[in-house]
Amino acid sequence: MESYFHLKQNKTTVKTEILAGVSSFLATAYIIVVNPTILSQAGMPFAGVLTATVLVSFFSSLMMGLYARNPILVAPGMGLNAFFTYSAVLGMGITWQVALGAVFWSGIVFLLLSAFNVRTLIVQAIPKPLRYAIAAGIGLYISLIGFANAKFIISNPATIIGISPMTPALLTFLAGLLLTSVLLVRNVKGGILIGILFTTLASYPIGRWWGTDFAPLISWQGVFSAPDFSLLLQLDLANSLQLAIFPVIFAFVFTDMFDSLSTFVGLAEAANLLDEHGEPRHVKRSLTTDAVATTLAGLLGSSPGTAYIESAVGIEAGGRTGLTAVVGAILFLPFLFLAPLLSMIPPIATAPALVLVGAFMIRPVVKINWFQLDDAIPAFLAMVLIPFTYSITQGIIWGFLTWTVIKLVTGKRKEISIGLWFIDIFAISALFLL
């Protein structure tokens, strides 16, 4: 294990990697239930999507750990599943079988881009200030997800967003946030995992005394369920190649590509997962893994797979090698049979970890020269638009376009790489399709 994952070289241990893998899994596990909930609205069987979600997450995360050797989990992406259901199936009126075919073909495009090293060139074409800003923006985005999951931040018609009145659930979240913070400050090993477990246990009186919205109570009679393989190979490959479906394929390609690229770059910068040239570590293998995840999703019956920003929870817990991803992958498998157990971990239990990840991922902003405005303004827009628009893709689109325009009109055309010009073309196209 030491020779394969290079644990000493990465200054980590088996114990640390296991704790990190468990932490990343707990922060990511919600997708096992959320993905079927969204895709079932497209007419797909809930149980079938759940099985597909678990299998995509397991095989893709395992590949990320063993092949790319990075501590990043891969699973069906949020946002991509919404596009699949609400835009492609319900909006355009295509069948879910055709939509699955579009997912498969977008994965094939990814594999071709990876085979010819195009995606690696795209990563290298992203200017360093934008990389740092993307990392920070993703951190803010994760924090926003955490606050929203805890219902600390809520919708307010008068001010767009607001703070929830104090409730027992909110007090439990704040207690978990404080405890996790103290554990991290005191460098307690597995502090994030301890915080998640503490908040889960503390939330159960809420479920018993104030209703079951925050901590559902489980009946052991409803724990076990057999896997449903009804969606396996149900994709429509022929009809998904019609000209009218090309915009759907392109939207999957663009959204998945930039979500995975920005997530991977952001996590690499925030955790210093860089090679000797300062580039994200094992970038080609990681992006190939992401491409395989999307292709596999189409075959198994799910929306595209992508690298998960919640992997930052495990990375901050000390995960530095592929062993973290392997542990996370293995933890998905039991939920082929034990999916109801996920309801034992309420959203407020992982919320403190997600909020604190933002503090860790915002570190790279100190590398940006904020007095160099032609660098600072595009970086700032990329950073704040990711959480403000609730979209990683929108943040990086406007960051790239602003960088290009400002550099062009200020006579710094040499700072616009050929790769960035191609990115801009895709970005402009996406603004009219997404």
From TrEMBL:
Indicate whether Nucleotide-binding appears among the record's keywords.
no
Q: Which UniProt keywords apply?
A: Cell membrane, Membrane, Transmembrane, Transmembrane helix, Transport
Q: Name one Pfam family in it.
A: Xan_ur_permease
The compartments listed are: Cell membrane
Q: Which residues cross the membrane?
A: 18-38, 44-66, 98-118, 130-154, 160-185, 192-211, 231-254, 323-342, 348-366, 378-401, 416-433
Recorded topology in the membrane: Multi-pass membrane protein
InterPro entries from the entry?
Azg-like, Azg-like_bact_archaea, NCS2
Which domain of life does the protein's organism represent?
A: Bacteria
What the record says about family reads:
Belongs to the nucleobase:cation symporter-2 (NCS2) (TC 2.A.40) family. Azg-like subfamily.
Protein's name in the database: NCS2 family permease
Q: Which organism is it from?
A: Pontibacter rugosus
